[in-house]
Every structure is written in structure tokens, then in C-alpha cells.
Write a structure and sequence with these properties.
The complex is a heterodimer of chains A (616) and B (344).
Chain A (H helix, E strand, L loop, with lengths): L4 E5 L1 E9 L4 H15 L2 E7 L14 E9 L10 E6 L2 H7 L3 E10 L5 H6 L18 E5 L1 H8 L7 H5 L2 H12 L5 H10 L4 H20 L5 E5 L7 E7 H16 L3 E5 L6 H7 L7 E5 L3 H13 L3 E6 L1 H17 L3 E7 L16 H6 L9 E3 L5 H15 L3 E7 H5 L1 E4 L49 E3 L14 H16 L17 E8 L3 H13 L4 E6 L1 E3 L5 H5 L2 E8 L5 H9 L4 E4 L8 H12 L1
Parallel strand pairs in A: 1-8, 2-5, 5-6, 6-7, 10-11, 10-12, 12-13, 13-15, 14-15, 18-19, 18-21, 21-22
Antiparallel strand pairs in A: 2-4, 3-4, 9-16, 14-20
Chain B lengths: L29 H11 L10 E5 L14 E4 L5 H11 L4 E7 H7 L1 H10 L4 E6 L34 H7 L4 E6 L3 H13 L4 E6 L11 H4 L4 H4 E3 L7 E2 L5 E6 L2 E6 L17 H8 L13 E8 L5 H16 L4 H6 L4 E3 L1
Parallel strand pairs in B: 1-2, 1-3, 3-4, 4-6, 5-6, 7-11
Antiparallel strand pairs in B: 5-11, 8-9, 9-10
Helix pairs in contact in B: 1-6, 3-4
The chains are: A alpha/beta (616), B alpha/beta (344).
Amino acid sequence: MSNSSIQNIEDVVIKFAGDSGDGMQLTGTQFSNNTALFGNDLSTFPDFPAEIRAPIGTLPGVSGFQLHFSSNRIFTPGDACDVLVAMNAAALKANLKGLKKGGIIIASTDGFDAKNLRLANYPEGVNPLEDGSLANYQLHTIDVTKLTREALKDSTLGMKEKDRAKNMFVLGFVYWMYDRTLESTQTFLNEKFGKKPDILESNLKVLQAGYNYGDTVEAFTTRYHVEKARMEPGTYRSITGNTALSYGLIAAGQKSNLPLFLGTYPITPASDILHELSRYKNFNIRTFQAEDEIAGITSAIGASYGGHMGITTTSGPGMALKGEAMGLAVMLEIPLLIINIQRGGPSTGLPTKTEQSDLLQAYYGRNGECPMPIVSASTPSDCFNAVFEAFRIAVQHMTPVIFLSDGYIANGAEPWRFPQSADLPEIAVKFKKGLEEGEEQFLPYHRDEKLVRPWAVPGTPGLEHRIGGLEKQNVTGNVSYDPENHQVMVKIRQEKIDKIADHIPPQTIELGPEKGKVLVLGWGSTYGAIKSAVLDLLSEGHEVAHAHIRYMRPFPKNLEEILHNYDKILIPEINNGQLIKIIRDQFLIDAQGYHKIMGVPITKGELVIKIREMLQ
Amino acid sequence: MSTATIAPQALTAKDFATDQEVRWCPGCGDYSILKQVQTIMPGLGIPKENIVIVSGIGCSSRFPYYMNTYGMHSIHGRATAIASGLKATRPELSVWVVTGDGDGLSIGGNHTIHLLRRNFDLNIMLFNNQIYGLTKGQYSPTSEENKVTKSTPFGSIDHPFNPLALALGADATFIARSMDRDPKHLQELLKRSHAHKGASFLEIYQNCNIFNDGAFEIFTEKGSKPEEAIFVEQGQPLIFGANKNKGIRLDGLRPVVVELGGEYSADDLWVHDEKDFYKAQLLTRLFDDPRIEGHLPRPFGVFYQAFRPTYEDQLNFQVQEATAQKGPGNLDKLLAGRETWTIK
């Protein structure tokens, strides 16, 4: 048996990196699930290329999965890695700068042969595993291919199929290193390959071989143990942002008693919502993979017109295509949800990388005076509650609503203390059922005190009426080109959206004093980095606070007051300065920005430096 | 939601008119089409509230405002996609799409072909006037070659679409052609479109007397109509001519015009069969430019009808099946997923 010792640590950041075909996303997901079930807090960051199969062994082909787990509460996937698993030379090269000095490298030696070194652009004759350049790290080399083949020497599978199990060897080994059991992955493999016994057996065998390798090889003298996290009591599961978002939609559908219709066109990183919702037809959900982005949103408009909840999902370029139809929904004043999982832009941009650069598009990216509410999500699990709210606003205020998430939280995972159905609020929906007493004729643009018009769906006798994209006469909804009427209608549509502020919760301070030197104001996926940075500075006694906006349009009514309670405002964003423009415009406040536009999240470390500067 | 319907107690065409002033140009072919639609509606036996007319943008797309049913005048080219979403969710409604050659074949061409291949059970009325009217006289995707318009002062070099061949190419299950100037025929074809279970594509030749007056004169006016238009009917030979003395015979796969009474009789002619996909393809290709010497006459009528399951029936069947097999969705089970852990 192993004579290794087990050392208790609090916090680990590990990155699995390899070629796109090496199964690193699966390896990372498996380790995450295992970690979640064990009871650590965790946060993940999958990072993969846009190409499905970039040339094997090259730098563009590197796929990575970063995982942060801890016995404490954590809010980000970690700034730098403690451990880097590199399946080939390109994976090492691409990720070495993200590894802490003194960190552990586990390198699969067969990925460092002459060909792989050349593909990773190492100079002729240079092998980083052998030339001493990694002396500042703890380097462990394992010939994974040889050991995998060895473990499968009795198998009848072909060599190529045997080699496919390599990632299981690595996973087994890392399980050993962190004192874990194999059970969750064994269960997963049984379900995945139940119908292919030889593949199942090879994966199970290699997983166990990886674990045993750690146990028997004397090179590894230390194992690590991360205690369960001290989290709020309750029942948890692991969840990604796109799954939480899908469940939020399903829950809102159940709580409003509305059937859902998703009209959409596949686009990274939003497609998983379509995949997810298409599985749940028994929740009275219809999904429609349309011929393009425009048909995605317009079919959803048709469904909303018919009394279903119309939803469309997309990412930035798709939003651009949907612009005209959003304007139609604004004129029709019917409920609709437009979900944008933002990615790097402009144009096709960085399809698999994250960015928060569609906020101004959501605000202003349509022709005419075209106000729409905007709701954003801040963490993977927050997508559930946030989209539930977006849904509520759409049906209760008869308006299209834009929901902003991004690639980082869409694909990232974290533990979620999920709610019970009974604890979720009902969403009251009112259809107009017919003419009321004293009502001689149906007036489709007659409004209530919220300035909301009735939802009157085809099939309702007595309410036959015509609506469309041409300007409406106030109250009657007839076509009108009258100049005064247009001004009135533009103002009414704006006021209707502004009034939503009366029906959303006030802005809260996430952390820190209610008055003080610096307020870090964030929105969306910067939540974890801001919270971690502010926590650090608060523990040092600084006067710094964190507020995070969910309701981007209209803003909560008390936001302005909050902004005036601090000497300085910092707005970090993964864009070139968008929320900051809106805040300056609406409140005449000289906020400062921190902008990182590299397709990756802002780290805690860089924010701490920036906030310190402002505190001086 | 209420789908209760009351019997359409003796509705008349008037019940389908609205209080809105009709604003098409005087003499526009759209007036006749509106009238024929209002005329046949009472006879369909559908309560008014269950009828929805969806249109895009263009002159024809003002149609919903003049029909006292549910209606949406949407955005350019997208009526077909909006109608698809509506029909998918509300299959019991009678949905009619009003579109034009620009709206349905140019900016909205993509949605039109996809609606047809999916076979939603709704009716597309494509008003073809071979011109852009609302934008004041540019050529359209159905305008003939060499056409001089505001945007083509040297003549159009665009090759025109053959709308019915396009629809058939998209595997439409019902394709037909009629004209604004033949009320009886148009009424008949509107009824047939409605009766078809599946997507019906009815092309209606419509005269734009402002920007393209007389585009279809040769097919619609008394003097030339008998020689230039051929009205096809199920099971009947293809006969035309003022004296019913001409017919179309298939020489292999090539249609040829023959004189009757001499070498050929009606028995030698092409007999129309709406169910025959191959013949329907040939029929859509009777699309000669009438300016060309020796051209074939233009067919009108139902070219083709087939049956295949509609999109909305299959979609809703999947919903029912999933519910029958798994039971109605259980939210708590869904939220918990398969793997949870508890912290005390």
C-alpha cells in the first residue's frame, strides 16, 4: 500500500487541459460532480475552442476545464491554478502562465513526443519536461498512454478505442490525489455505456488503474484532503447557468400556468437551453428549432399572441438579427422573453469566450424609441431566480423582456441550494375573457393603472381585433399617423416600462457599509470576482462595499440614493465600458471603470489592486 | 384558455368587414380578393373568433385591418414565421397568411419554404403583382426579365421566380393559382385551400393598376384569356381556346399544344391529376413568358394536393405522448435532479 501522507488543505484550483479530443470537458465535469457530492463549495470555468476539432496537438486545439473547490465559501473559479493537468505540450504551453509558482504539473509524457512538441511550437530539440525550465514547479510525468494500454491488454478493443479511455486514467489518478472515491464516475459510466459493455469495462478498468497508480507509485508522497465546506444548511445540487436558466423558465411556466414555446436557432453558447427544454415536453413545453434567428423570435411572437409564453434564446449576433422583431413585440405589447447568452463580439467575435458587451445593444439596439426591460443574472444558480423574474415582468407588464447571461456563467457550475416548488411565488396572469358589462367594443390599447393593456387571445368571442407594427391610436389600437398621437404613444410606452420600477425589489448592498469610500457596482458575471475582492479588503478594514444590479432597466428606484452614499464608484465590466455610460448618463455620477476585454472573466487579484488604488 | 366556440349563426360577408376605411388605390386588385375572402368566410362554418389573418408588409399586408376577425399586420417577410408559432401552439385556429411577391418570396422567402416543408395546416395567399407597390414601383422577384422600373432603368437582369415551382420544390402539400379578375374561380380555390389539411399555397395574380397595370391582362381579359389561360380540373383533359378546340398533350415528358378535331381528340390529351407529383412538376413548368412566340398557355387551378402529417399535429402528439408516458412534469423532482447532498 501507499506510504503517502494525507495533508489537509482549504482550497484548490485545478485545471484539466488537453487536446479538444482528449475529453477534458468530461473529465472536469466528472471531477466537479464528485466534488459537489462530497460537499465542497465549487466554481467551474470550462474554456474550449470554437473549432470542434482544431488540428490535433496545436495551440488553438487546447481545451481546458478549470475547477475551484474549497472548504470555505468561494465565488470564482480561481485566479491562478494550484494544479495543471497537461495532456500534451500545447496544453502546457497555453496554460503555464495561469499556474502558481510552485504549483503541481501532471504531464502526460506521450503528449510530449517530437511531433507534439513541434505542433506546440517548441523550438527543435526543446522539451520542457526535460530541459529544467519547469524547475519552479512540482513536475510529475506519467506515461498515460502506455499505462492505459497496459490496463487494457486483455481487451479486444482496437488501439484507438483503448486510447480514448486515457482521460479516465487521469481522472482516477486525480481522485486518488484528492482522497476521493470513484463511485460517482462509476455510476455515470454505467449509465452512459450500459449498452456498450466493452467500452464500459475499459473505462471502469482504466479509471481504477489511474487510482491504483497513485496508490502504488512512490513518486507521489502527498495526497490532499479538502474538508466539506461550511455552507448554509440545506440540500444542494450542482448546476450550470444554462440548466438553471432552463429550470427557471420551466418553474415560471408552472407557476403562471402558461405553456411555454421556445422558438430558437442554435448558437453558442445558448444552444444548451434548447437541448434542455426539448427534453421536458411533459411540462407542456414546445420547442421549435426555426430556420433562422428571425423565425426564432417571430414564431415566439406568434405563440405569445396565441396565449403561450413565447421565448427565444440566442447570443449577440442573433440579437442583432432579432432587433426588428423586438420592435414589433414592443408595438404589440405582448409578453416575450429574449434571452441573450453574451459572448465576445462584434460580429462572430469569440463564440466560446465570455463578454458583457451586449448591454448597450439591449438598451438601444433597435430602431425608434423602443424601451424594453432588461434583467441580468450574476452566477450560474442565479440564472434560475433572475429568469423567473424576467418571465414575471413580461407577463404582468405585457412587454418583451431581454434577459442577459453570458458564456462564463452559462457553462460554469456551482452548488445550488435549490428551492422547493411550494416556496416559489405564483405568477398571476390575466387573459381578457370577453367584453365586460358596459363595454360596448373591445379597445385593445385600453390600459390599467400600470399602463398595461389586456392580453386578448384569438379564440375569445367578442374580442376580435387587429394589431400590428404600425403606430397605434391611443386606446383603440387603430392605425394612426397623427403627430400628437405618436408623441403620446412614445411617452406612454416609455412610462409603462419606467413604472416597472414600482414592482421590483429595491437595490441591496451585497457586502460592506451603507456609506463609505468606495462602492464597487457590478452586474452579471463579475459578481464572484467583485465579491471575493471586496471580502478581502473588508477583512483588512477598508471602507468598501459591493452592490450588484439584477434589474438593468428600469433600475431599482433607490439606486441613485445608494450611489450618492459613497465617495467613489467603481464599475468593473467585461467590456469597454457600457453600464458605466448608462450610470453616468442617468445619474451624472463620475464613476470609474475597470475594463477587461480578453474573453475571460475579471480576476479577484486584479480588482483588489484597482480598488486599493481608489482607496488611497 | 377558452376554445369554446359558438355556432357561426348565419354570418354574412358583411360580418367580416371592419369599420376601417379600405385604403388601397382605387382599382387595385386587392379589393376583389378581399371581397372574395369575405364572401367565402361565412360558408366555412368557423366562428369569427377562431379565424386569424397574419400578414407581413406591403400593400397586400393591410388585409387584416379590413377583416373583422383576429389579425396581425406584422413585419416584412415574417408573417409565415409568426403564423407558424401561432399554429404550433393553437392548432384549433384557422390561420390565413396574406403575403405578396416581395414579402413572401424576397425578404421572407426563407420562412415561406420552411413553412411549406414543415406542413403547418394553414393557408398562404400570395398576392403576386410582379412589382413592389408600397415602395412605389421597383421590380420584384417575380418581375419578368428586361422589365424597366424605377430601380431598373436599363431593364431588369434578375431571372424571376416561378412561385409554384418553388413551393413544390419545398414539398408543399397544396399548390394552386387563381386571379383577382375571376371571382368565381378565386372563391372556389379559397375554399379548396381552406379544406386542405396541411399548408396550402395559393398564388393569386393581382393587378397593380398604378405601377404594373395590365401585367396579367393577357390571362385575365376576355379577348385573350381563353387562348392564354388554361383552367385545370381534376380528372379532366387539358383543353383551352375560345372554341375549346385546343389541348395539351404530353409527348413523353414534353407538353405540346395540339388542335382538336383532326389528328387528336380529347382522349389523347394530358389528363389532370392533382395527386400526381410528377405531372404537377411539369404543370408548374408551364410558365412561358407570354411575349415569346409559341409559348404555352398558363395554368390556373389546383396543381397538386398531397397529404402528410402536419407539424402542429406531430408536435402536440409528442407533448401528449411525453405526458402520458412520464406523467405531468414534477417540478420538485426536476429541480432536485439525480444527485444531491445535504448540509446540516
